[in-house]
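Hi R.,

Here's the chain you asked about this morning:
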Amino acid sequence: MKGLLTLLAMMFFAVTTSAAGVPPVQTVFVIVLENHNWSSFKGSADAPFINGTLLPKASYCEQYYTPPGLHPSEPNYIWLEAGTNFGILNDNDPASNHLNQTNHLAAQLRRAGISWKTYQEDITGSVVPLTAVGGYAPKHNPFVYFDDLTGTNNASNAYGIAHNRPYTELAGDLTNNTVARYNFITPNLCDDGHDSCAPQNNPVRQIDDWLAIQVPKILNSAAYSNNGALFITWDEGASGSDGPVGMIVLSPLARGGGYFNSLHYTHSSFVRTVQEIFGVSPWLGDAANAADLGDLFTKYSINTAGTSTNGAFQLDITGAVPGRTNLVEASTNLATWSAVSTNASSSNSFSITDGTATNYNWRFYRVREAQ
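And the predicted structure, written out as tokens:
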């Protein structure tokens, strides 16, 4: 068995140690795709890049949903920016759906002096993209709906133009290490899987092919390797479904290695996670009630769940990859280790009882995972 020490828990009889929360991510990239359930991608022959390349190195969710009953696309994109849809339930342009609100993420980042930018495929970059052009649709760009970012639907607004950039500029910004700290990426209507387009005429394959070309540019960048994080998700499920939809996370700080969980998340979880990463507040909308995505970053956590009269106790271990074999080892001196349990967990957590932990003054534990 080969593996790495992922957590060392030091216990004096029954002292508990654990790991949780979101680590110090420096740069965030998020790619938002369209209208497919996670079941259309995981294990699909039409998604070889996602299944063969991304998932083996990523952390991902099995139960990530749009907020209940929230459709169509536009309300979900606005939710990803604000933790709420502000009552919008259609896909209209900013001309009728613009919002005089400052309770949203880009406004918080702006006030905190944290750089942000959205890269939208097919826009010109010469105006604030308030209307459709090519394969670009405003309904997939939440930033053009907020008056404080557009000068209230002013196509010539300098701030709006500077922060809504053509996707073609991303590669150069990555090479020059000039990307913002928060980067929101929207492919066009073919590449995001919204439409069926030639030559594939297969939205799942269209998405996978686009990711196969574009994602390595991010993963090979200095911004990513220096504690960056890439989130890949979908706005909503197919045919008005709430999901589950995909949420894939890649980061040098993520659990990775194909780790997945079945915790319940929504887009509010993403909003809360980004707010935690950048330290901006107050919580936006439903982010106040949501769990963050910290479990996708957290390594093993070991906790004691009770001590017997002779000093033996139960260990509760979380952060396991379902199906992987985990070796739990103990030591009294950090030099010599003995196996306590070998466990192939079917879930993200398991419990073992260390019957040999009898009246030690010091007892150390570690968990190693077979690769």
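The longest strand covers residues 5-11.

Let me know if you need anything else.
M.
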